[in-house]
Structure formats: structure tokens, C-alpha cells
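Example 3.2
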Amino acid sequence: MKLVPAILDLWDDARDVFKQNRVWERARRLGLSQLVCIERHTITGLLCSCGRQFDDWSADYRLFSQDV
């Protein structure tokens, strides 16, 4: 099995852990950004890695600041 499909399958298996689909998508996007981030692995660095540096970051920071 190839790495990327295996990682995506793991994220699909974790989908029911999240109450809302958009939160799962946000967590998956940040999780996949961990793999390609060449900067520091901060939330800001992950957002830049996935091309969201010019979007509103508040929901991404909230993901790490409370239980979802």
C-alpha cells in the first residue's frame, strides 16, 4: 500500500471522532500539512504549508484550543 492512500484511510477512519464534517476537514488538512511543512511545525507554519496564510485563521486556532 502506498503512503498517501494509507494516511487518507486513517483520516477516513477517524471521521466519526469529530462532531462536524468541517472540523474533520480542517483537522485533516492540518494533519496532512505536517507531512509537507518545511518550516517550523507551528499552527502558522501548517497554515502556510496548505496555502491558507491569507485566510482567516481563527477556526484553525480554535481547533487546538478546545475539545471538538
